[in-house]
Automatic annotation (TrEMBL):
Matching PANTHER family: BUD13 HOMOLOG
Pfam families noted in UniProt: Bud13
Lineage: Eukaryota, Sar, Stramenopiles, Ochrophyta, Dictyochophyceae
Record's protein name: Uncharacterized protein
Family: Belongs to the CWC26 family.
Region Disordered, annotated ranges: 1-27, 49-88
Biased composition (Basic and acidic residues): 49-78
GO molecular function: RNA binding
Amino acid sequence: IKEDRHIREQQKEADKSLGDKQEETIYRDKKGRKLDMLNEFMRQQAIREGKEVEEKAEQEEWGKGTVQKQEEKAHQEELANIANEPFARTVNDPKVDAMYREKIHADDPMAAYMMKKREKEGVKGKNGKPANPFYK
C-alpha cells in the first residue's frame, strides 16, 4: 500500500511539472516509424478518398450495360443540341415534329404497320433500291 501511495505521489509530481501543457500526438505507420502528423494524415486521407471514388466509378461502370451507356450518351448529345437551339420552340419546328412522328405508341392502330414499314425501309434504301452495306 505504501508503494502504491508512493507511486501515485510521484505521478502527481510529474503531472505538476508538466503543468497544463499537453504533448503532441505521435502518429506512426504500420512499421512503427514516426510520421509527419498532419501531412501524412492528409495524404493517407486523400488516398483513401481517391480509392473510394475510383471504386464507386468502377461499380457504376460495371452496373451499366452497353445499351444504357449508349442511351446516356445519346441523351447527353440531345441535351447539348437543345442548348444550342433557340429558347422557344414553335409548332412548325421540323425537329420536334419529326421526334413526335417517330414515336410509336402502344395503343396506336397503325403501330404494327409502321413497324413493318420501318423494317422494309431499313432493308431498302431511301430511293427504293436495296441498300448497300455500310462499313465503318
